[in-house]
Amino acid sequence: MQLSVWEKPMDLKNRGDLNRIIEDPPHKRKLEASATDSSDGSSSEDGREDQSLKTKRNRTEGHGSPGLEEAEREDKGTRTPPPQILLPLEERVTHFRDMLLERGVSAFSTWEKELHKIVFDPRYLLLNSEERKQIFEQFVKTRIKEEYKEKKSKLLLAKEEFKKLLEESKVSPRTTFKEFAEKYGRDQRFRLVQKRKDQEHFFNQFILILKKRDKENRLRLRRMR
């Protein structure tokens, strides 16, 4: 089509001199002058060609050109993203809470320390800055009680498994914790109790029970004699 199309930059929007040049471009004046020179009654081939070129230019530059308008619409469509449908606030809050839970955000930590766990999750952008911190504070208050219950439940379960290991190991009242740990330290039930002091505490409780049983058995034997 021999047509150049351009978008005016923002900093040139209000340039009156450019607007005048665009409305009356130099190449347009040249073509009109050429058409005037060739309209002196002669029917030369060059004159017809100039007039034909002017007509084509008027067609392509006209605002009613379907092809150009369609191209402009398509070009704008590629640059302007479709409008996003914003979810209701209640749903966005629910998704944000789910993200905090799934990402393992600790109720015993701070927003700044936990931020790296969630900042790259798409659900992080569902709320603005103020809403995020507000929901985080609410989440923390609720999770403190829940995490305490979960930890207590896990510790009780670990204690039961640890006790089963002690019973199966056939330890005696004279067995030390060091001996027990060296022999069964790799057992999964031993590792369920994560803190060393808890391991020793549960072991010592079990040994005390064994010693008490042993003492009762010895007293019973004495009475029988």
UniProtKB/TrEMBL annotation:
Biased composition (Basic and acidic residues): 8-26, 45-62
Positions of region (Disordered): 1-86
Recorded coiled-coil stretches: 141-168
PROSITE patterns: FF (PS51676)
Any Pfam family: FF
Residues annotated as domain FF: 89-142, 154-209
Keyword annotations from UniProtKB, A to Z: Coiled coil, Repeat
Record-given protein name: Transcription elongation regulator 1-like protein
